[in-house]
């Protein structure tokens, strides 16, 4: 990935979370505090603004900056989690711009290290794990095919959170009543990978 593609990805995510802000907020209103759409919109709009005045010539620098901006601008749980994801991805790409599959894996590892969620806990991890696995499996076929596979896997993973009972984050306070709603963070992870696939 080069700097231009990384910038295009962040811009596409910002546009997508804006287009889906109401949906993300409604999902979070059902099992959380109703701010997920607002949180991500603020964070990715701030990332786009920060990148506009940031002269980076590598995807690694662009995505690290994106992550740092998300951490500083988003108050909710998702800010530090997505911020860590993009920072770890950016750091990997700074060492090797071609190591996108490894970078996604490093991003996932950072999210798990910070949030301690396991698959099945009804969080963004339920979309992230299948997306990262699908990307790695399809990587030999090239970026476009791998990103498309990852996007499909993330969407399936997000949909599969609906019947689950949350064991991490605010939704876990609801206990059994968290079942029956798709997790907002898993839903936004699907948007992030759909935006990636849209670049191919
Ligand atoms: P907050 O819950 O602080 O208001 P957001 O609404 O922005 O933050 O984000 C909520 C989402 O964050 C959840 O839907 C879930 O996917 C994700 N999340 C919360 N806690 C964790 C965690 N410990 N690990 C992974 N993801 C988490
Ligand atoms: Mg919330
Ligand atoms: Mg909140």
UniProtKB/TrEMBL annotation:
Every copy of the DhaL domain together lies at 4-198
Q: Which residues form the signal peptide?
A: 1-21
Q: Which UniProt keywords apply?
A: Kinase, Signal, Transferase
UniProt keyword annotation of Signal present: yes
What molecular functions are annotated in GO for this chain? glycerone kinase activity
Q: SMART domains, alphabetically? A: Dak2
Q: Name one GO biological process term.
A: glycerol catabolic process
Task: List, alphabetically, the SUPFAM superfamilies matched.
Answer: DhaL-like
Q: Which GO terms describe its cellular component?
A: cytosol
Classification via Pfam families: Dak2 (PF02734)
Superkingdom of this protein's organism: Bacteria
Quote the PANTHER family the UniProt record gives. TRIOKINASE/FMN CYCLASE, TRIOKINASE_FMN CYCLASE
Q: Which NCBIfam families match?
A: dha_L_ycgS (TIGR02365)
Q: What is this protein called?
A: Dihydroxyacetone kinase subunit L
């Amino acid at each position: 990935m080069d700097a231009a593609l990384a910038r295009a990805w962040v811009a596409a995510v910002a546009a997508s979370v804006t287009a889906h802000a109401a949906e993300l907020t409604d999902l979070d209103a059902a099992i959380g505090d109703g701010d997920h759409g607002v949180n991500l919109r603020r964070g990715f709009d701030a990332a786009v603004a920060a990148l506009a005045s940031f002269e980076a010539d590598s995807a690694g620098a662009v995505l690290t900056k994106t992550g740092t901006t998300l951490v500083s601008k988003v108050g909710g749980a998702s800010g530090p989690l997505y911020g860590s994801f993009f920072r770890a991805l950016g750091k990997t790409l700074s060492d090797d711009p071609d190591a996108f599959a490894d970078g996604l894996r490093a991003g996932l590892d950072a999210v798990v290290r910070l949030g301690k969620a396991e698959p099945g806990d009804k969080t963004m991890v339920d979309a992230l794990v299948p997306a990262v696995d699908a990307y790695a499996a399809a990587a030999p076929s090239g970026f476009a095919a791998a990103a498309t596979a990852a996007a499909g896997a993330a969407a399936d993973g997000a949909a599969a959170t609906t019947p689950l009972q949350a064991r991490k984050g605010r939704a876990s306070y609801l206990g059994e009543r968290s079942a029956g709603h798709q997790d907002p963070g898993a839903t936004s992870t699907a948007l992030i990978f759909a935006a990636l696939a849209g670049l191919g």
